[in-house]
């Protein structure tokens, strides 16, 4: 505040006061993630949005630096359920978007080859501060290239933009459970587009 001149001091103080009451405006949250309401979810995303994308893009990762030009696959990030601790928000590239947002679950379909899904993740620390998590990625490849993993290639980017080493089987063992959804988990039903 050393730059304040007396005449402007009152106004500046009024501004400072407004900023600190505008809730979670210092980005500290005093609720548990499971108790979040929509306004909290939005406020938290406003806190992390720019830093998340900047972090994933920092090392020029081929997906981490472009996925924000794609379309979001839900109305917004989903809050973690009782068993999860991460907030998640998935983007799809042009190849995969239309099929993905059908959230098809009756089998008999495959996402187009070249579809890429990128899922942002972040959580709250014990002190209620945002912590950026990895960007999780699935890329649909030609039949024969990754048969044992449903022709998906899994990858991830750390919040600092570095490539994250992962095991295909670790990711796919869980995703394979979504057998009638081409291995897709889809966003939480609360945030899916309604389709009308
Ligand atoms: C314990 C189960 C589990 C494991 C392990 C897991 N996932 Fe997922 N994944 C899910 C579920 C459930 C969803 C859908 C929930 C959501 O995104 O809100 C999901 C969603 C995704 C999505 C968004 C596309 C979709 O499926 O709808 C991507 C991308 C993704 N996971 C990548 C990965 C990667 C990469 C790994 C390995 C590092 C991984 N996952 C490991 C359960 C898992």
Q: What secondary-structure arrangement, pairings included, does this model have?
A:
Elements: H1 6-21, H2 38-57, E1 71-72, E2 87-92, H3 97-100, E3 116-124, E4 130-132, E5 135-140, E6 152-157, E7 163-164, H4 168-175
Antiparallel strand pairs: 1-2, 2-3, 3-4, 3-5, 5-6, 6-7
Bound molecules: heme C.
Organism: Sulfitobacter aestuariivivens
Protein name: Cytochrome P460 family protein
Signal peptide: 1-24
Notable characteristics:
single chain; 196 residues; alpha+beta; 7-stranded antiparallel sheet; 17% strand; binds heme C; Cytochrome_P460_sp; signal; Cytochrome P460 family protein
Structure description:
By secondary structure, the protein is of the alpha+beta class. It has one domain (25-186): 3-Layer(bba) Sandwich (Chalcone isomerase), CATH 3.50.70. The chain has helices at residues 6-21, 38-57, 97-100, 168-175; strands spanning 71-72, 87-92, 116-124, 130-132, 135-140, 152-157, 163-164. Strands 1, 2, 3, 4, 5, 6 and 7 form a 7-stranded antiparallel beta sheet that branches. β6 and β7 (163-164) form a beta hairpin. The longest helix is centred in the N-terminal third of the chain and has 20 residues, at 38-57. The protein is globular, with a radius of gyration of 20 Å. It binds heme C.
């Amino acid at each position: 505040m050393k730059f304040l001149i007396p005449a402007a001091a009152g106004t500046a103080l009024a501004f400072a006061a407004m900023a600190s009451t505008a809730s979670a405006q210092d980005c500290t949250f005093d609720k548990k993630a499971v108790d979040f309401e929509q306004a909290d979810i939005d406020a938290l995303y406003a806190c992390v949005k720019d830093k998340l994308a900047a972090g994933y893009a920092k090392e020029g990762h081929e997906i981490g630096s472009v996925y924000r030009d794609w379309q979001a696959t839900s109305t917004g990030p989903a809050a973690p359920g009782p068993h999860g601790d991460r907030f998640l928000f998935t983007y799809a590239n042009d190849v995969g978007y239309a099929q993905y947002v059908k959230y098809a679950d009756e089998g008999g379909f495959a996402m187009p080859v070249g579809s890429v899904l990128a899922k942002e993740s972040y959580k709250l620390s014990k002190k209620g501060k945002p912590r950026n998590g990895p960007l999780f990625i699935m890329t649909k490849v030609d039949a024969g290239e990754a048969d044992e993993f449903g022709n998906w290639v899994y990858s991830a980017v750390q919040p600092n933009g570095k490539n994250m080493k992962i095991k295909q089987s670790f990711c796919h063992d869980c995703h394979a459970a979504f057998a009638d959804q081409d291995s897709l988990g889809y966003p939480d039903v609360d945030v899916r587009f309604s389709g009308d």
